[in-house]
Amino acid sequence: MQNLIVTRILQQARARRDTSDIPGFEAAFGTGRRSGITQAQVAHLAGVSRRWYGSLEAGRPGNYSDAFLQAVRRILDLADVEWGIVYRVTRGHAPAVAPVSHLRALLPDAFRAFIEESRTWALYLNDFRWDLLAYNAKTLEYFPWMRYGLNVMEWALTWPEARTQLVNWEEEWAKPMMAQLRVHAEEWPTDERMRSVIETVRADPTARKLWAAPDLPAITHPSSEQPRRLYLAGRGDQEFAVRFMAGTPDELPSCRLMVVTPAEAVSGN
């Protein structure tokens, strides 16, 4: 039995999607119309076949994973009401709430306000499992996915959209971040949430190969001396370089405050 409400929601979302809001879209697919995204493009960004995405949009029952459905939500920028309907109709129950770090309750109000109200640089705070505790609006200019409040490592290492947005994904982003994850896995071997993040990362075939890579760098934080490149929403196929600077708050020593600063554009006009 087909679920026509799912078809209507996804077709309407595809038709209204502004592709310039998807970081790296033009680099992946070339320039063209900005209004509307095709089924094939959604499938590519979600890391599945055109047939598999088409089956979902047609409302046909299937064993659609949470990761796939979440990817469709992000790619099409579904409103909360739309997302709730698509998920409940497809899976038969409401979507699970994203894990919330117990450290969020310990974050002082003044420190949270400092992060969220900062206007000059992108700032975000994550715990030792890379679950987000706070971020400011500037961060969303670089990483729109943060508004979903999910895990930094899970996004960078397993989400197909990250591999579209992040230039030279494996060398500049994935290997250094995987090295950090390996270090934390050994520092907190009994932490349940840490194990869950590692399981999610290792469930992805590409990330699983990097987990065992012999040439991972021996680092525990990103180097501010090594810029990383990415595409930004609204900037087409122009590459931008950013630097990450990491700091540890005295009041939350197991957390890390990240400052993202721009470098000059490295290609384009």
UniProtKB/TrEMBL annotation:
Membrane-crossing ranges are none
Q: What's the superkingdom here? A: Bacteria
**Name of the featured protein:** Helix-turn-helix domain-containing protein
SMART domains in the cross-refs: HTH_XRE
* One Pfam family, short name: HTH_31
Q: Which organism is it from?
A: Streptomyces hokutonensis
Which InterPro entries has this protein been placed in?
Cro/C1-type_HTH, Lambda_DNA-bd_dom_sf, MLTR_LBD
Domain (HTH cro/C1-type) ranges: 9-83
